[in-house]
Amino acid sequence: MRYRSTRSNREAVSASQAILEGLSPDGGLFVPETIPSLPCTPEQLADMDYQETAFEIMKLYLTDYSEGELKACIAAAYDHKFDTDRIVPLAKVEGTYYLELFHGPTIAFKDMALSILPHLMTAAMKKSGKNKETVILTATSGDTGKAALEGFADVPGTRILVFYPRDGVSAIQRQQMLTQRGENTWVIGVDGNFDDCQNGVKAILADKELAEQMNAAGLSFSSANSINIGRLVPQIVYYVYAYARLLREGEIAAGEPINIVVPTGNFGNILAAWYASRMGLPVHRLLCASNENKVLCDFFATGLYDRCRPFILTDSPSMDILVSSNLERLIYELTGRDHGRTAAFMERLAREGSYQIDDSMKERMKIFWGGFATQEEGRQEIRRVFADCGHVMDTHTAVASAVYAQYRRATKDDTKTLIASTASPYKFAPSILRAIRPEWEEQREKISDLDWAFACAAELSRLSGTEIPSAVQELRGAPQRHKLTCSADQMKQMVRDVLKI
Asked: 350: domain range?
């Protein structure tokens, strides 16, 4: 399997090269030359555990990794770091299946890919024969940052710099990042939103002069964002595994199609579900759930992608995004894998802030259905589900659940449905309490956002009868090690200062 850029006819590269580079030098994203078919029947997959499923799927994409290398990466990634042997359990709630992707060390779905990416990258570094240190450059809207820091902390031959919007993450997310250990880790708060962070990182990765200076210093850039194909491939696995579990547990018949609902901002998680469908996973519809930053919802309704709109801070900060980077990979497929047209769309987006696809492209994305939920609708969904059956969901999952309800009302479609549950509710405990017990807010005194988050976590534990995850408990009293901040236009200089180049 070779990988091409979405923006040029540059020579295709191997999987390990694509993972090391992260972003193509022309600014495009790496995509596989072909999308392989599922290697096993649904019945065969149903007999596999998560690690076995991961190997069967990933070996199709990462073909320059030996069987031993790939199995070692998988074993090191999906181990005791997860609090369940199933890695991603399924919860059946009111006839809908919630795929719990938050049982890893940072209690968010980003662990599913970022637990394995450092191992894939270090194996790729050995293959390359280069002696350069790899500098991981990452923008985060809250969850990617901590998961990447956790994965790469003190990994030999790597350094990692994470940029996050100072006022755009939850108190728990911020504390998770600022207390990160590791002599090779740096966390920088940016005075701006996630799009500012993401655009800054992309500009740095594409800066040829800086790349030359890095090369002279024995360094090279890569990324842990979902623009890295090494992030996307592992995400395909859990959709295949979920389908196999539903089959094994008698919830569906072999070959029976399902719907998949994904709360998304940067489009990587739902793109992985689309790849799974293209591989042959029986999928009826992919529901793209947005919050009030509904640029994706509007795109699927009209074919117009328009980032020129107000940026709204919400209770679901990991979805507060107006430039969905991974959509470029879908655009490339919708154009018939035309790199010239794809590059033109991306140039128009950068220059004018929008682009419009044609009818033939719209026809090819009919599997998608876009919807959005307001902040109040999300809170109502959290409140309703908890009152009806005692199940607690986080703010992002609530957006997906509310959008699914809209879809059911609009279409009367009763296809069995899987919802990607992307984070632990304890990561956003104040927002959850605001939904299920609004009067609790009145008890807040003049305490910090972080202390209030801990108080809300304790009350949520009491109300729900669930334990506070250790990933939250261990943050109490942990010293903040990272204090760097900058403006969006200072990000490149911050990288130079940190790396001393």
From this structure: 90-107+230-425
